[in-house]
Model the fold of this input.
Amino acid sequence: MFCFQCQETAKNTGCTVRGVCGKEETTANLQDLLIFNLKGIALLAKKGKEAGVDMTTEAGRFVTKALFTTITNVNFNDANLVKWIKKAQEFKKSVKDKVEGKVPGALHESALWFSDNEAEFQEKAKKVGILATENEDVRSLRELLVIGLKGISAYADHAAILGVEKDEIYEFILNALASTTEDLSVDDMVGMVMKAGECSVNTMAALDQANTGAYGNPEITEVNLGVGANPGILISGHDLKDMDELLKQTDGTGVDVYTHGEMLPANYYPAFKKYDHLKGNYGGSWWHQNEDFETFNGAILMTTNCIIPIKKKNTYQDRIFTTGVVSYPGLTHIPDREDGKTKDFSAVIACAKKCQPPQEIETGTLVGGFAHNQVLALADKVVEAVKSGAIKRFIVMAGCDGRMKNREYFTEVAKKLPKDTVILTAGCAKYRYNKLDLGDIGGIPRVLDAGQCNDSYSLAVIALKLKEVFGVGHINDLPISFDIGWYEQKAVAVLLALLHLGVKGIRLGPTLPAFVSPTVLNVLVENFDIKPTGDVDEDIAAMMAGN
Done:
């Protein structure tokens, strides 16, 4: 195996024996083979459209969902990945049959390879994986694109689940994935990566439209961190439709619902706040789940990443459920919706009713809900605070949390930032500092949480509005610095979106991506002044000076 798609990859080079995330070599290989087949689908769909056979929507739906299942901490189940590979080949054949005789020239092997012999899958995977591209810089640009596309695909899939689909997004994903089978110039590959940033912005905008259209604009909300006396269900991940259906099905059952990890921002939506049995948030970010799930005592529902391997000492195996693209060996999976019906969470509810109430691990509250609509409603107050000097600088500390000890950097930055700064955040990076007592500035909390990782779009909207209000020429002219923590592929999609918007001087940590070669990194440094996080005090001083 060779996998370097996440921040914790071994020695910041690549996992070659077993993933630091816990996935086995066979799992990594099957993911590579699935992506190989998806490239074939993308290529055939692209060629087909050029020949007048348009399958953009169908191919886009399939490819985005399949790419989503290869994101870190989504799918650890080899049997499920084998099914995905077989489904990909069936879909690929259907596309190939439709364009047969209409596409001139030779096709890449990914469009032509078919096998139903599972014994061949592992050997084939080893020949078509990441290292099949020998040139380091070509490999770096291709993988930067594929990894970004994984993040974009996750956001596109969430939007599609809520009925918002845009063929221009699907078309770009297909064309970009197909481009990784072509011998492009370095300039063309760099251009495609930059276009991925534009697509990322458009996809996050579509998801924002889907979420707010279905559940209202997030509101400033005080979220409870304690527990009640009823048995509960802990819902983790990002899928708000799962949240919606679970709340409806648990209403009046005597079972409470709690959010975990990236589902915390569900507490900010008006459509969910009306449920009295939505009790608040339990625990911390994704990597604490072996402990959080243990003490929760009740049923657990994983809607997306991040699920992590269950340890031998854990006892929650029989009360954790997966759904959507998530798959883990031995766990009960809640099937997808069929024919416009809702998912059936009765098994989760029945499990919860047999469990003890959650064990309290903390008390108090935290405040969130500062997405773009809410912050823009407070724009006059924010602008006045900046003009008066009460707020000297905004620090965008969005992104991901992770296990590495050096992520304490972000906690220390939050603690040491001057009292006249405001942190703008989204994603699970917030858990490094959202429970600290950092106070407020004239009633404006010093940590403004916009929501999930995709709600980084809100931070971009806020920045663009501030640019307009202050009459400056560019985001980079605002008193804003970017100090981003990354872990998985959705964070890469967010990073590419920021680069598309022309943001310069981004600090990225706790390490720079292993999939970015020295030459490609040099391009990013020269054009965007990307830099690694460093010494806390030195970084704070530089950011306060606008560097």
User: Anything to note?
Assistant: The chain has three domains: 10-214, 221-353, 369-544. The first helix runs from residue 25 to 50.
